Amino acid sequence: LKKKLVSLLMALVALVIISDLVFTPPDQRLIQTKRIKSFLIWVQSHPVKGVLAYVMVYASMVVLLLPGTPLTIGSGYIYKMAYGWGIGVTIGSIFSTLGSLLGSVLCFCLGRYLMKETVKGWVRKSPMFGAIDDAVGK
Fold first, then answer.
1. Number of C-alpha atoms within 13 angstroms, CB side, residue 18?
2. For labelling alongside 111, which of 14, 41, 64, 70 has CA 20 to 30 A away?
């Protein structure tokens, strides 16, 4: 039940994002440049909450296969403005890496534990992936 619920939730999120990109005019989309900019300004004005939120948003972007480049560049810029070139860019790089790492771990856990049977089905259907799975399993 838990696996089906998570799979359904992931499919729903993917459907919302795709329909937003296809059917919504650019100025009314959920993910816009101005929203990313306002989020980064909020991160700058709330240092502790901002860092935690930034890492979580970055991780969710990794899981949802959305580009993290705007957030990475934005965090470098925001932290550079707040703390200067050396420390600011370093802080932005560290938190971008942490967000990316957390997102990667979440993807691994989703694939390993929650979607294991689905992935096995995909592997069985494809001769190439089946051969790779057999080679790796030895």
1. 8
2. 70
